[in-house]
Amino acid sequence: MSYETIIGLEVHSELKTKTKIFCNCSTKFGEEPNANTCPICLGLPGTLPVMNEEVVNLAVKAGKAVGCRINQLNKMDRKNYFYPDLPKAYQISQFDLPICEEGLIKIETEDGIRDVRINRIHMEEDAGKLVHMEYEPYTLIDYNRVGVPLIEIVTEPDMRSIEEAITFFKTLKDILEYAGISDCKMEQGSIRCDANISMRKVGDDKLNTRVELKNINSFKELQKALEKEQKRQLELYTYGEEHKIVQETRRWDSGKGKTIPMRSKEEAHDYRYFPEPDVIPIIVSDEIIANAEATMPELPEIKKARLMSEYGISKKEVEVLVADKPLVDYFEELIACGCESKLACNWILGDVLRVLKEEKITANEFAITPAKLFKLLALVSESKISTTAAKTVFEEMLKSWKEPEEIVKEKGLSQISSLDTIDPIIEEVIKNNPSVVEQYKEGKTQVQGFLVGQIMKATKGKANPKMVAELLVEKLNSI
Questions:
Q1: pLDDT 10s digits, 276-329
Q2: Domains in the chain, ordered, with CATH?
Q3: Is 61 left (phi over 0), alpha (psi -120 to 50) or beta?
Q4: Total-model pTM
């Protein structure tokens, strides 16, 4: 019996605001525990929340970026549950009147383009962070994150494989980042997801019992968690024990490599939703919607098509660039300096990306600015230094603030393009390799590469390789 996998995601993304959703506390990450708190976000008696207008603006922008209908009248609700990371013992969220509904994201799969429907996008406040002490019998609570504004993007169960779920999550992350809605720093938890997964027999229309995997903040861990839960459910169906699959929330334990039950999955009535009495209903004006559309930056799919068309770079190269917003911004800045697109692409996807991975930094933290890299590549384009010499200069630029021209001069890396210098060296190499020359005369033109190598060796790599190749062929053909 064949089974298919059904997956839906609930993606939580922190919004790119300076202050929290209902107070003026900073949303800055990495502050001292409980430094970014006040009586409002700590839920002290007598305090009243005031809606941050920028949260509404960004939520509307997110909705327009994924083709949602904007509900111009919506409200906040209380979602009641008791947990230590919620100081009020309830979360202000949205229930029956979310800000956005009925969107769509297209993803590219092995079987072609698949539509993933967005059920809703709603606004809510984030909860705090619990720090479980490994060797002590207590838990610490950091409330800095309490009240940080979130949007939750809920999909329909439209994904049919783990690969599709990962592709969707990546695609959505790129859209939110490019639109300026979230910084999408997964390592800081500013975008994370809950995954709902179930199995059913191929050909069935009925959706079976689903399991929710909670709070996953990396593509790799999402893949591992879904694979393990898929395997667990498939085994239960195969051995006739599907009754053991219950609607529950499980967490992914990466250390143990398995999903672990947390609690039974709550229904809406378990949260006792009711309209938030301290926050007035939200009216989204036509002006807010028009502004979201007018200020929408170039989104990933449009950027991919433009880069391929405008710069003639391959689809594979474009996908690597666009998947990393700081990297593609660096590329376009380098082009704006006057660099030839193919040369820029080769260097960024080669040496620059290598250093970024080694140092675990982003392109906007890279020591060599686009303007400075352009100066180096201009020396290559103008045949003042060889590509080999440029690699040496590049490594030196990583260690110092010196200009590339200064490094070239200090290390004597200037390329030799003088006919008077190169010509006698070519003559000498031809003279010293008569058997190779004979092979060339017999039609084995590939030996030319060996002779070029000998000439470059004699000039310590400083000779202009293009000039060497042209002069060498000319001399060999005249013999």
A1: 999 999 999 999 999 999 999 999 999 999 999 999 999 999 999 999 999 999
A2: 3-291 (no CATH), 297-411 (no CATH), 419-478 (1.10.10.410)
A3: alpha
A4: 0.85
